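Renewal narrative, Specific Aim 1. Our central claim is that a sequence can be written position by position from structural information alone. The example that follows is taken directly from our test logs and has not been curated for this report. It begins with the structure tokens describing the chain, in the order in which they were read.
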């Protein structure tokens, strides 16, 4: 299992609804709920992460 170095999203607010993202492992983007750091996380291909960010930016 690779070691992910998570950072809190710059879009996270102070209301506890936060996600953390790790991009330090080549070819993988990991996303997790900051309220549950030892819980499950989602692994995405970089292209899928880029598509998600683009759609999020458009408000889709």
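The sequence written for that structure reads:
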């Amino acid at each position: 299992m690779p070691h992910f170095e998570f950072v809190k999203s710059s879009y996270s607010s102070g209301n506890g609804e936060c996600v953390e993202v790790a991009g330090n492992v080549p070819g993988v983007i990991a996303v997790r709920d900051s309220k549950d750091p030892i819980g499950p996380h989602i692994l995405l291909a970089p292209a899928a992460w880029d598509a998600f960010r683009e759609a999020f930016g458009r408000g889709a």
